[in-house]
Design brief:
Elements lengths: L2 H8 L3 H10 L6 E2 L5 E2 L2 H15 L4 H12 L5 H35 L9 H8 L3 H11 L20
Antiparallel strand pairs: 1-2
């Protein structure tokens, strides 16, 4: 199938397919005599794998690792689980960061009168940056230090599902 058909079948845009080829994430497609890309069912399945991995928030570097494990029939599932648990930890951190941002913005919006006067605590905060007290509160809520690293970087233990 051509790139348009592969894009439709996989849910990955033609532009992204070309990008994945250029970076080596997927092998270069075969070509017709006139130079058009041709994709097999196996390559479309690989594109679906990439699409699903991206939907779950995996960065391209981790998708490369997942693809290698997917192709390796002698892999250990513990390697795959480790990557998934690392992704879960990263998502938890992002959720925590976004929750703290939302709470801060909500507090600023609550402090703003939203009337005809020019005084606005939202703009004042954006212009001055967070106070040391609010920075400490954000770090406390998210578990992040100033460097953006988790204060407790140990992964959470998840209970197995039967």
């Amino acid at each position: 199938m051509n790139i348009g058909e592969a894009a439709k079948a996989s849910g990955v845009s033609a532009k992204m397919i070309r990008y994945y080829e250029s970076t080596g994430l997927i092998p270069a497609a075969g070509r017709t005599g006139s130079g058009y890309r041709v994709y097999s069912d196996t390559e479309v399945q690989m594109l679906r794998f990439i699409r699903r991995s991206r939907d779950l928030g995996f960065p391209v570097e981790k998708i490369e690792e997942l693809l290698a494990l997917w192709r390796d029939r002698s892999r250990q599932s513990s390697d795959v689980k480790r990557l998934a648990q690392e992704q879960i930890t990263g998502l938890e951190r992002k959720i925590s960061e976004m929750q703290a941002m939302m709470e801060t913005l909500q507090q600023l919006a609550d402090e703003c009168c939203g009337d005809h006067r020019p005084d606005c605590p939202i703009l004042a905060d954006l212009g001055n940056g967070p106070s040391p007290a609010s920075r400490a509160e954000i770090e406390k809520k998210t578990g992040l230090s100033r460097s953006g690293r988790l204060a407790d970087a140990r992964p959470r233990q998840h209970q197995p599902v039967d």
